[in-house]
Every structure is written in C-alpha cells, then in structure tokens.
Amino acid sequence: MNKRNTLFIGPFSPPFTGDSVKNSCLKDGFIASGTDSIQWFDTICRKGNRYLHRLSLIPLMFKADQIILSLNRQGRYAIIWIFYFLKMFTAKRALLYVVGGTFDQQVQEMNPLSKRLYLKAIRRLDGIFAESKALKKGLLELGLKNVELVYNPRNDTGARWQFTTEISHKAVFISRITEDKGVGVLLDALKQINDEGMEINIDFYGPIDPDYEKEFNQKLEPLGAKAKYCGQLSPSEVQNTLVNYHFLALPTFHFGEGLPGILVEAAMAGIPIIITHFNALPEYFEHEKSALLARPHDVSDLKNLIMQLIQNENLANELNHGILKVAEPFKTEAIISQSKELMHLYGWTL
C-alpha cells in the first residue's frame, strides 16, 4: 500500500515545555521506528512574522492526506476547526494527541452552543489519544467514542537512582517555576524543616514564569545557600541529573495537570518522588508504594512527608522499586508501537 502524505502539527523543543518535549519524543520515536514519510510542522515561529507562519500551515493541511495533531488548549481549538472545514470538501484524516489532563473539563466549560459544535468537529477525528484513564473517562462521558489511552512518552537514558550518603538530604524540583506547580508551598515547607534544625538543600531547574520571578526570589532568600536556582535542562540532561538527588518534589495543583513529563523521567530514573493527590496523579502513583502523595496546598502535610522520607532509608528504597515499575508503559518505543497499531486500524499508511 502506498504511503500517504502525513503532516504532524505541534510545538517542538526548545523551549523545553511539556508539550514540546512530548512532541520531540514522538518525532524521535517515529523516525527511529523507520517512519520517514511524516512532514513536521513546528507551531513555534522561530523567525519571521508569526502570523505568516501560522497562515503557512493552511496549504500544508490542504495537501496532507493524514494529519497528526499534538497541541495544547489554544492550538487544538484553532486547528481542529481548520481540519473540520477541510474535511467538508476532502477525504482528509486526522487524529489528536491530547496535551494536558483537563481537555474534558475545558469542553464542559464551554457555552452550550460552542460545546455542541466543538464536539461535532472532534467527532470527525479518527482518534483522540488521552494520556490518562481519567481523561479518557471524561471524554467518553462527553459522548465521544474514538478515545484511546496513549501515555505521555519519554526517552530512557539508562541512568538509575541509588541511595548514597552523597545525595542524602538533597532535593530537586524540575518543572515550570510558578505558584501552581507548588513552588511556594514547597519552599515554605523546607523553611519550616530547616528552621527546626534538619538541613535539606534543594536545587530548582526550569523556566521561571516572569510574573512569578520576584516572589520566587523572595521565597528563596530566607533559605540562603540551601536553595538555589540552577537554570534549565535539556531533555537529554534530565534523567542523568535526577539520580544526583535524594528525592524529587513536585507538589503541583496546576489546573491543566495531566501527567507531568518530569514524573515519567523520574520513574525511569527510579528516584523517590513527593507529589500531590491531585487530578489524575493517583492513577499512576500509589502512596507509599511508588510515591508519597501530599494534600494540595498543604504545607504541613508536605513537610511531614519530606521528613518521613529523609528519616527512612528503607522507604526511599521501597519507592525506588515501586516507581521503576510505573515507568514501563511510558517508554517512547512502546508509545510509538501502540500509535502505529492504532493508525493501522484507522486505515492509515505511513
């Protein structure tokens, strides 16, 4: 069967955000699997006029027989409508990798007319790839029938965590640095712990939201040398960096949180993690088995869990064994294999 003209639309790294890293992993995985027929359109304008860049996508979509969308909220809303319009006049096919974990809630919040029309457009997609069971359930409850569970992929570098005295009491945060990722809650908890005489050091990696930078620096200051910002990491550096720390903390309460990619990389590394019982995170991680789950916004609960982990080496090793098992379905090779099988069922050729 002849290969069809396939177009992949989405942002790619850099910058190293959740959606761009996911798409870069997908691109690497498709190419590594021998798929060389996909044209890649980066929705990030690297040079020139961004409006002309966006307009240049329309003729590419018109020419493509098969379109893979991997977009966040704003991107998928705009581009799905373009696909829907083209679908009226062509036999074009498309599928969507959903970026983020609250797509179903976003649709529910639309006014009734917009919601009905948007669902009509989404139904024209061959498949919707949800990254969590909770999201899949929510989309099915909206009346959609073409929803599949396809996890968020990450590349495994092979680096593995092992507890040593050199990494003891060293914490790390790797994500977007902003209030709703739990940065303030984390720093407040660490300040209380250090004030009580148990010294814990933490390094922060990730892009700082401009409107949070001042507050972030103010919260770092009381901890002095015990807390520092270390810049950003490329995807290839993350797993190798994680193994140099006692634990990863990500007490997120970000509304659109699905499964943060950093937690997949942490699972591959085997590092103990302290996260929140929030959105779909308990779907992936079991408390005291593969992670410690704090209540969102709760400084005291987070503080107690950090102290529990620091004081119990056996717990750290148990979490290490548990989280390594979580990682298996998220490896890029497995995600690409599953994706290609689904595309084959849809009648696609790559």
CATH class of the largest domain: Alpha Beta
Strand content: 5-15%
CATH superfamily of the largest domain: Glycogen Phosphorylase B
**CA radius of gyration:** 21 Å
Instruction: Write down the secondary-structure element order.
Output: EHEHHEHEHHEHEEHEHEHEHEHEHHH
Distance N to C terminus: 9 Å
CATH topology of the largest domain: Rossmann fold
State the main characteristics.
15 helices, elongated, alpha/beta, 15% strand, 6-stranded parallel β-sheet, single chain, 350 residues, Rossmann fold
3D architecture notes:
The protein is of the alpha/beta class. It has two domains: 6-153 and 331-345, 3-Layer(aba) Sandwich (Rossmann fold), CATH 3.40.50; 170-329, Glycogen Phosphorylase B (Rossmann fold, 3-Layer(aba) Sandwich). The protein is built from 15 helices and twelve strands. It has helices spanning 18-32, 50-55, 57-63, 73-87, 103-108, 112-122, 133-141, 183-195, 213-220, 235-242, 261-269, 281-284, 299-310, 313-327, 332-345; strands spanning 6-10, 38-42, 66-71, 93-98, 127-130, 147-149, 170-174, 201-205, 227-229, 247-249, 273-276, 292-294. The strands form two sheets. A six-stranded parallel beta sheet has the order 2-1-3-4-5-6, with helices on both faces. It has a six-stranded parallel beta sheet with strand order 9-8-7-10-11-12, sandwiched between helices. β10 (247-249), α11 and β11 form a beta-alpha-beta unit. The mean pLDDT is 94.
